[in-house]
Each structure stands twice: as C-alpha cells, then as structure tokens.
C-alpha cells in the first residue's frame, strides 16, 4: 500500500515540510518552468520555492502553452536566469530597470533538460539572459555539482532575490530544503553519507 502524501508539498505525510515553508513577498515575479522529469524528484526544490513565494508561479512541461502571454505580464521586465555567453550580471539588469520589477524566469531541470526547454520554446531563448555572481557554492551535499557555482533551483532563486530585492533577504526559503537534505542523510546513515559524499 503506498504511503500517504501531503497534497501541498507532495512529501510523505510523516515527512511533511509545510510547517517549514515560509510565505515571502517580493516585488520580483518568479516564473519557474519545470521539466516534467523533475516532478517526481525526491527534492523537487522548484515546488518548495513556488510554495514559499507569494509572487511565484510554477509551470510544468516541455513545450509550454501560453508562454508568450506569461512573459508579457504588464508592469514587469522579463529575464531568463541562465548562465553562459551573453548573460549579464543580475545586478546590472536590475539597475537598468529604472524601478520596473523583473519577471525572473527560472528553468528547472538538469543542464541538458534546461537547454531543451530553451530549444523547444523560442520565446524563452529570445529573453535577455542574466547570471548570478561567480563563486557561489551549493548546500546540496548529496549531489556533486556538475560545474563550479551550480546551485539547486531554490538556491538560485534565493540568491537572485537577495540581489534584486536587497536589503531584503530570502534565506527562510531554504529551511525546508535543508530539512529535506538532513532527512535524507539521516535515512542513509551518517557513515554511508561520509563515505560516499565527503570524499575529496
């Protein structure tokens, strides 16, 4: 018999994270575009971010219907949080906005799946790209980052909002994420975690 799950955070009821999920307001609107392969992922940090932010929306799909309308929301300047050639520093994009809040579009998936989202959705590829500062490190201790500075979706969103909404801070959004990681470490056992995840 399958374990009952919380309908909100989608975690097993005995590991529900809802009590740790804050409700944070932001001027920035966050649009998270999740590749379908991420929906069943144990950590699913995009869902945690969407639940914790009042001005956020989570859409799931490879080809996203109605995307041009989502990107053309009145009163916002859209940008795509995706590093690489042509991406400008996020702080620079914010400064050039003259008070117009950003619509921060965040693809959620592996790098390969995120690139596929851009390929299948030309409206995404046409957005100005922004990037976080270099040298950031992930708290995601259960997975080796594919490249320096790679963050989980929820970490990237927190870092971005800390820049865009300074001096406001969004660290509270990471509480359920950290509890999730601690729970997984506890489930596998400290010895196995140290042997498999603390090697140089």
From TrEMBL:
<keyword id="KW-0819">tRNA processing</keyword>
<dbReference type="Pfam" id="PF03942">
    <property type="entry name" value="DTW"/>
</dbReference>
<comment type="similarity">
    <text>Belongs to the TDD superfamily. DTWD2 family.</text>
</comment>
<keyword id="KW-0949">S-adenosyl-L-methionine</keyword>
<keyword id="KW-0808">Transferase</keyword>
<feature type="domain" description="DTW">
    <location>
        <begin position="2"/>
        <end position="189"/>
    </location>
</feature>
<protein>
    <recommendedName>
        <fullName>tRNA-uridine aminocarboxypropyltransferase</fullName>
        <ecNumber>2.5.1.25</ecNumber>
    </recommendedName>
</protein>
<dbReference type="InterPro" id="IPR039262">
    <property type="entry name" value="DTWD2/TAPT"/>
</dbReference>
<dbReference type="InterPro" id="IPR005636">
    <property type="entry name" value="DTW"/>
</dbReference>
